[in-house]
Amino acid sequence: MTDQPTRPNRETREAERADAEVTAQADRPPTSEEERLAEEQVLDPDVAKHEREMAERGAKQEGEGRIP
User: Fold this and answer.
1) Among 12, 23, 59, 63, which one has the highest count of C-beta atoms within 10 angstroms of its own C-beta?
2) Residue 15, Cβ neighbours under 10 Å: how many?
3) Is residue 18 part of a domain?
4) Tell me: the pLDDT tens digits for 34-59?
5) Domain count, the chain
6) Distance of CA 4 to the CA centre of its chain
7) pTM value?
């Protein structure tokens, strides 16, 4: 790598703009086997409780870093 700063060209800026507009998504839908295995999973009650607490805490967050 070079220590010298570079200037992006028009093609780079266009590619960055297009990339910024892409929403994240799965590369493929789950297979029936994957869906079956997911449904068979047993949820840990402590983990579920912690998730609910964190969701509530995030909803009440104020100040820097808060997403409106």
Assistant:
1) 12
2) 12
3) no
4) 999 999 999 999 999 999 999 888 88
5) 1
6) 33
7) 0.41
Contact in structure between 43 and 51 (CB atoms under 8 Å): no
The CA–CA distances, whole Å, from 65 to 12, 24, 47, 68 equal 30, 22, 25, 9
The answer to whether 44 and 52 have CB atoms below 8 angstroms apart is no
Q: Which helix (H) or strand (E) holds 8?
A: none
Say if 54 falls within a structural domain.
yes
**Which whole-number Å values give the CA distances from 28 to 4, 25, 45, 50, 54, in the listed order?**
41, 9, 30, 30, 29
One-letter amino acid at 60 equals: K
Token duo for residue 21: 């507009």
41: containing domain: 30-61
Examine residue 38 and state whether it is found in any structural domain, yes or no: yes
Between the CA of residue 46 and those of 19, 51, 54, 56, 60, what are the distances in Å?
38, 9, 12, 15, 21
